[in-house]
Every structure is written in structure tokens, then in C-alpha cells.
Amino acid sequence: MKISHLFQTHPQTFSFEFFPPKDEISAVDFGINVGQLMKLNPSFVSVTYGAGGSSQERTFALVDYLQNKIGLQTMAHYTCVNASKEKIQADMQTIRAMGIENLMALRGDPPKGIAAFDPHPDGFTYANELIAFVRAISFDFCIAAAAYPETHPEAPSREEDIRNLKKKVAAGASFLLTQLFYDNAGYFRFVAECRAAGIACRIIPGILPITTRSQWERFSAMGKAPETLGEQIKSHAGNPKKIYQSGMDFAIAQCRELLSKGAPGLHFFTLNKSRATVEIFEEVMKS
Ligand SMILES: Cc1cc2nc3c(=O)[nH]c(=O)nc-3n(C[C@H](O)[C@H](O)[C@H](O)COP(=O)(O)OP(=O)(O)OC[C@H]3O[C@@H](n4cnc5c(N)ncnc54)[C@H](O)[C@@H]3O)c2cc1C
After folding, report:
1. How far apart are CA 222 and CA 219, in angstroms?
2. Dihedral over Cα of 153, 155, 158, 164: its sign
3. What global pTM score does this model have?
């Protein structure tokens, strides 16, 4: 089923994002975690493509497995990285033949250490071009695209980034999934700006709970981590259990507020783990 059809009956959706496990041990671990997450009956799941060095074939294999063996409504991520038009067409055929009806269409990132995105000579520079191409070759996917409440790092301005976001919707994206963020007010401000710019589709917030000190430090270095949580984490130095609980408390409060103020669901970046997502989901569903 297309996710856009699901929207007709579901004012809010709850979805989980995975990446293809990199070896056999991680695959076993992944299976256990998916088992736990399946019990939550997600609206859909998605599988990243080529991110973090994972091979693209493994994305397709995992998408096929989740959709056809496990029976989860699955969305395949896909990027313009190293993709000629011919390759895109062949890959779309492969995904469609698996019965996949949902596609997250992305530009992708340049390899680590390289500043600028280098498009394939017979490919695309921006996600809106990929979306338009997939639509033009008449693969009838429900297409999602990425949105950035804190502005994409390469965008010249916030306004320009929202104008570019609108191009993805105009090209045929049916809904948007956001990059992770920890400032709900910023998300709602972004949604209001998108509406003012004429973007009417769902903008589903992406959630990544911070559960360890090193994770907080990583996001803090990117200017993303919340200060209030940082203070708690520092005060629990050497006590990973308390740090985990502080991260959970923050994420649960964040998700509750998002839903109570009208967010159209939650998309969890699970990092292929289940514990934090299960705990947050169960708490949020109680309220
Ligand atoms: C929910 C989510 C899932 C993701 N999954 C993956 C994944 O599976 N694999 C992966 O490799 N990466 C993934 N990413 C990361 C993504 O590939 C990067 O953030 C990438 O840098 C931008 O991709 P995009 O599709 O948003 O690009 P675009 O929409 O093309 O935007 C890239 C930049 O170009 C600008 N721009 C866009 N269109 C135009 C235009 N027509 N003219 C001029 N400027 C323009 C934008 O303002 C922005 O600064 C994901 C991101 C999110 C939020």
C-alpha cells in the first residue's frame, strides 16, 4: 500500500528507519531488534541507501525481506550518488518488481572528506530532479523527500532551502521526513514557514533519542544537542544508566509535545536497535 493512502485513515503515522546490517553478527542482532519493533505495529518502515558505507544491494535485499517475508509496509531510500539515468531506471524496475510502492528520493551526501556533491555525468544534482525523473518514467511510487527544520548545511539561506524543498513537492513528493532535531519550537516554526511558502503535505518529524554521553558529544559538536540534556548528562558522569534515563525522559517529553501540538506522527531513526524506540513508543502511546 502507498503510504499516501495510509494518510487517508491515519492522522498520525509511526515509522522506523533501519540501515542494512554490515555483517552476519549485526544481521542476527538486527533480526532480534526488528522482532521487538514489529510488536509495535508500525505504520511503515524504511531502509537507508548507501549511507554510512553500506552497499546498495543490501538495501534492496533488506527492503525485499521486510516487505515480502516480514510483511511490513516498507519504503526504499534511494540517492543520486553514482546513479546514471539508466541505472535509476533499472533500479526502480527492481524495487517495483519486489512490490515496493514507497520511495524516499534523496540526493545523497558526498563521500567523507569531500566538500561538494559530485553528480554522475548522466545523473542528477538535486533530489527534485530525481523525483521528477522517477515520475516521468512512470513508476507509480508514493515518493517521500527529506526536509531540514534547522536548514540543510549547504543551503545559502533558510528561505532558499524552503524554496528548494517546495521544488521536491512540486516534482511529485507526497510527504516529507525531517532530519533529526531536538528543538520542537524550531520544528513548528519550520512547518509554519513551509505552509506560508505553499508546501501543504505532511512533514513528519525525525526522532533520534540521545542515550549515551558520546552520542550527546557528537551532536553537541554539530551544534544540535540540547543544552538542558547536556547538563544532566554531565551531572551523571560515569553512570550510563542515569544518562540513558535522562535521554529517554527528554525524548519522551519531546515526542509527547510534538504529537500534542499537531505533528502528523513520528519517524524513529532506530540505528537498528529496539530498546529506546520501544520504551519511548510505549510511554508516548500511554498519554
Ligand atoms: C529522513 C532522512 C533520510 C535520509 N536517508 C538517507 C539515505 O538513505 N542515504 C543517504 O545517503 N542519505 C540519506 N539522507 C541524507 C541526505 O542524503 C543528505 O542530507 C543530503 O545532503 C541531501 O539530500 P536531499 O535529498 O535533501 O538533497 P536536496 O533536496 O537535493 O538538497 C541538497 C542541497 O541542495 C539545495 N537544493 C535542492 N534543490 C535545489 C535546486 N533545484 N537548485 C539549487 N539548490 C538546490 C538544498 O537547499 C540543499 O542545500 C537522509 C536524510 C534525511 C533527512
Report:
1. 5
2. negative
3. 0.97
Give dist(CA 19, CA 48) in Å, integer. 5
Q: So where are the chain's domains?
A: 3-286
CA angle at residue 253 from 247 to 255, to 5 degrees? 100
| Nearest alpha carbon, ligand 1 atom 35 | 155
Q: Indicate which residue's Cα is closest to atom 36 of ligand 1.
A: 164
Q: Which of 17, 101, 129, 150 is catalytic?
A: 17
Mean pLDDT, the chain, rounded, equals: 94
Neighbours of 226 (CB within 10 A): 18
Is 282 part of the annotated catalytic residue set?
no
Instruction: Look at residue 132 in the predicted model and tell me its pLDDT.
Output: 98
The DSSP secondary structure of 142-178, one letter per residue, reads EEEEEE-TT--TT-S-HHHHHHHHHHHHHHTEEEEEE
The predicted structure's pLDDT at residue 54? 61
- Beta-bridged to residue 281, according to DSSP, are none
Task: Give distance in angstroms: CA of 156 to centre of ligand 1.
Answer: 14
CATH architecture label of 3-286: Alpha-Beta Barrel (3.20)
Residue 82 cell numbers, joined: 553514482
Q: Name every protein residue with a CB atom under 6 angstroms from any ligand 1 atom.
A: 48-51, 77, 79, 106-109, 126-128, 146, 152, 154-155, 160-161, 164, 167-168, 177, 179, 206
pLDDT per position as a tens digit, 167-196:
999 999 999 999 999 999 999 999 999 999
